[in-house]
C-alpha cells in the first residue's frame, strides 16, 4: 500500500560555534535518512540524544527544511511554511512534544486550548466546537471539569492528555510524537502510551514515535528505525528487531533494556563517549564504542544494506541473511 509519509534522503546541517571564541563549524544533525510510513502504522525512531531523531521529526512536519532530500505527505511535497497549502497539510499532521506545560498557555483554561485548532481552521459552528471539545476530553479519559481548569491545576499526565486532545481536534491523519512521555513518571508513562495505542487503532492514525526509551518504542511501534549520529543504523519490524537485533549498537541498546518478563542474558555495556554531532568519528560513527570494530570501521562508512526484505543494517560485519548465531533470544 502507498506510504502516507515518504522521506527520501533528507539531511540537515547546522552552523554551531564551539566555545566562546570558536569558529562556527558545520554540524551534520541528519545525514541521508530515508523512511516511509504506511497509512495506519506507527514507525518508531529510537536513539540517544544527538542522534538526529528530533531534527528528522521536525523536517517531516515541514518545521525545518532539509538541506537535501525530500518529504512527501500523501503524495504531495510538504508545502512552504505559512502558505495556504501548508495550513491545509498542517491540519492533517499534528505533533506532541516532551513538555506539555511548555506547549500550553498557563493563563487559559485547557478546554479553550483544545478548541483553538478548531477556531484557527474554522471547523464547525460554535456549538459543534463545544461538542467536539467535550468529545475530545472524553477520548483522552478526561471530563468537562478538567477542561475548565488551568494547566497549572493538572498533573503532568493530564496535561499531556490535553495536548493530545488538542492535537486530535482537527482529526489529523498523521501524528509526530517526540519523547511524549519522557517527562512523566514511569507509572503514568504506560497510561499515556496505552491511550496513544488505543486512539491510534480507533482513529486509524499514522504515527511517527520518537524516543530514546526502548521500552516505550517497543510498546507502540510496528516498525523501528535506530539512529546513531544522524544516520539510520538498523531498521525493521519492531518485534523481530527487538528479538534479533543485528547491529552492534542495537544489540547493546536491547541488552540494556530487556523485554518485560525476559532476563537480560549477557548484558552488553556501551562504553565510550555518548554521541556528539560536533565530533563525529570517521568511518562508522559508532566505531569508538563498538566491541566488534575492525580497522576498516574507522575509515569506511557502512551503507544501510538490506539483509532480507524486512531488515536493513549498516554494519561491515552484518552482510548475509540474519544469522542464527547473532540471535539474542
Ligand atoms: Fe561496529 Fe564496524 Fe559494524 Fe560499525 S561497522 S557497528 S564499528 S563492526
Ligand atoms: Mg530530541
Automatic annotation (TrEMBL):
<dbReference type="GO" id="GO:0005524">
    <property type="term" value="F:ATP binding"/>
</dbReference>
<comment type="similarity">
    <text>Belongs to the ABC transporter superfamily.</text>
</comment>
<dbReference type="Pfam" id="PF08352">
    <property type="entry name" value="oligo_HPY"/>
</dbReference>
<keyword id="KW-0067">ATP-binding</keyword>
<dbReference type="InterPro" id="IPR013563">
    <property type="entry name" value="Oligopep_ABC_C"/>
</dbReference>
<dbReference type="InterPro" id="IPR050319">
    <property type="entry name" value="ABC_transp_ATP-bind"/>
</dbReference>
<keyword id="KW-0547">Nucleotide-binding</keyword>
<dbReference type="InterPro" id="IPR003593">
    <property type="entry name" value="AAA+_ATPase"/>
</dbReference>
<dbReference type="InterPro" id="IPR027417">
    <property type="entry name" value="P-loop_NTPase"/>
</dbReference>
<feature type="domain" description="ABC transporter">
    <location>
        <begin position="5"/>
        <end position="254"/>
    </location>
</feature>
<comment type="function">
    <text>Involved in beta-(1--&gt;2)glucan export. Transmembrane domains (TMD) form a pore in the inner membrane and the ATP-binding domain (NBD) is responsible for energy generation.</text>
</comment>
<dbReference type="InterPro" id="IPR003439">
    <property type="entry name" value="ABC_transporter-like_ATP-bd"/>
</dbReference>
<dbReference type="InterPro" id="IPR017871">
    <property type="entry name" value="ABC_transporter-like_CS"/>
</dbReference>
<feature type="region of interest" description="Disordered">
    <location>
        <begin position="256"/>
        <end position="275"/>
    </location>
</feature>
<protein>
    <submittedName>
        <fullName>ATP-binding cassette domain-containing protein</fullName>
    </submittedName>
</protein>
<dbReference type="Pfam" id="PF00005">
    <property type="entry name" value="ABC_tran"/>
</dbReference>
<keyword id="KW-0813">Transport</keyword>
Amino acid at each position: 500500500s502507498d506510504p502516507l509519509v515518504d522521506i527520501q534522503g533528507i539531511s540537515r546541517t547546522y552552523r554551531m560555534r564551539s566555545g566562546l571564541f570558536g569558529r562556527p563549524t558545520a554540524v551534520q544533525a541528519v545525514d541521508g535518512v530515508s523512511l516511509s510510513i504506511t497509512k495506519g502504522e506507527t514507525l518508531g525512531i529510537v536513539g540517544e540524544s544527538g542522534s538526529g531523531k528530533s531534527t528528522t521529526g521536525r523536517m517531516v512536519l515541514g518545521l525545518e527544511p532539509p538541506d537535501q532530500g525530500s518529504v512527501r505527505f500523501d503524495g504531495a511535497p510538504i508545502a512552504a511554511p505559512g502558505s495556504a497549502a501548508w495550513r491545509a497539510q498542517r491540519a492533517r499532521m499534528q505533533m506532541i512534544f516532551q513538555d506539555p506545560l511548555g506547549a500550553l498557555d498557563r493563563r487559559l483554561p485547557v478546554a479553550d486550548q483544545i478548541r483553538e485548532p478548531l477556531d484557527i481552521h474554522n471547523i464547525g459552528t460554535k456549538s459543534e466546537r463545544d461538542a467536539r471539545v467535550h468529545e475530545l476530553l472524553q477520548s483522552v479519559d478526561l471530563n468537562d471539569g478538567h477542561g475548565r481548569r488551568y494547566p497549572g491545576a493538572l498533573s503532568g499526565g493530564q496535561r499531556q492528555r490535553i495536548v493530545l486532545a488538542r492535537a486530535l481536534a482537527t482529526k489529523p491523519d498523521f501524528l509526530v510524537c517526540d519523547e511524549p512521555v519522557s517527562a512523566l513518571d514511569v507509572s503514568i508513562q504506560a497510561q499515556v502510551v496505552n491511550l496513544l495505542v488505543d486512539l491510534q487503532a480507533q482513529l486509524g492514525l499514522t504515527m511517527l514515535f520518537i524516543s530514546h526509551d526502548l521500552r516505550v518504542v517497543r510498546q507502540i511501534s510496528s516498525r523501528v528505525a535506530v539512529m546513531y549520529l544522524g544516520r539510520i543504523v538498523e531498521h525493521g519490524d519492531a518485534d523481530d528487531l527487538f528479538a534479533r537485533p543485528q547491529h552492534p549498537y542495537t544489540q547493546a541498546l536491547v541488552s540494556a533494556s530487556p523485554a518485560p518478563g525476559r532476563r537480560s542474558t549477557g548484558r552488553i555495556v556501551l562504553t565510550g563517549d555518548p554521541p556528539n554531532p560536533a565530533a563525529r568519528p570517521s568511518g562508522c560513527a559508532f566505531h569508538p564504542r563498538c566491541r566488534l570494530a575492525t580497522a576498516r570501521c574507522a575509515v569506511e562508512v557502512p551503507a544501510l544494506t538490506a539483509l532480507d526484505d524486512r531488515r536493513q543494517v549498516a554494519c561491515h560485519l552484518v552482510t548475509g541473511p540474519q544469522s542464527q548465531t547473532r540471535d539474542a533470544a
